[in-house]
């Protein structure tokens, strides 16, 4: 049987700041992110199975990404644990969705985090193939499983 890739696109709004960075992105700012998740597998060949002909139900992929990424990060502020987190937290109700991570919240590092979270939740016969995260309309980073064997 043929291997097939499925891709689903997701959008979310998130702010971040890059601690100790030497450019404008050291300032708290936001992006309208576009995340493309591509999985790979063989379509289900069981004619009696409700998912016959599918590698994975798009709804199942949507639920995984919603749980692991969107519900957590949409309209949140993402900062490194090296940043003065208490100063940001003192923004009170404006920082209710402050998320502190153990990495610099660059597009590249976010993809590594996302890949681990999504891959861990995929059905056994489905593999995470790639992720693409647009930070702006013209800037994105990509993660490929084949590069991270």
TrEMBL record:
Locate the transmembrane regions by residue number: none
- The record places the active site at 25 (proton acceptor), 75 (charge relay system), 135 (charge relay system)
Q: Which residues bind Zn(2+)?
A: 16, 29, 31
Taxonomic superkingdom:
Bacteria
An example GO biological process term is: tRNA queuosine(34) biosynthetic process
Q: Which InterPro entries match?
A: 6-PTP_synth/QueD, 6-PTP_synth/QueD_sf
Q: In which pathway does it act?
A: Purine metabolism; 7-cyano-7-deazaguanine biosynthesis
- Note whether Lyase occurs among the keywords: yes
**GO molecular function per UniProt:** 6-carboxytetrahydropterin synthase activity; metal ion binding
What does the entry's cofactor note say about binding and number? Binds 1 zinc ion per subunit.
Q: Which UniProt keywords apply?
A: Lyase, Metal-binding, Queuosine biosynthesis, Zinc
EC annotation from Swiss-Prot or TrEMBL: 4.-.-.-
Lipid biosynthesis listed as a keyword: no
Q: Which SUPFAM superfamilies match?
A: Tetrahydrobiopterin biosynthesis enzymes-like
Enumerate the catalysed reactions: 7,8-dihydroneopterin 3'-triphosphate + H2O = 6-carboxy-5,6,7,8-tetrahydropterin + triphosphate + acetaldehyde + 2 H(+)
Q: What class of enzyme is it?
A: lyase
Q: Which cofactor does it need?
A: Zn(2+)
Q: What family does the entry list?
A: Belongs to the PTPS family. QueD subfamily.
The protein, known as: 6-carboxy-5,6,7,8-tetrahydropterin synthase
The species this protein was found in = Breznakibacter xylanolyticus
| Lineage summary | Bacteria, Pseudomonadati, Bacteroidota, Bacteroidia, Marinilabiliales
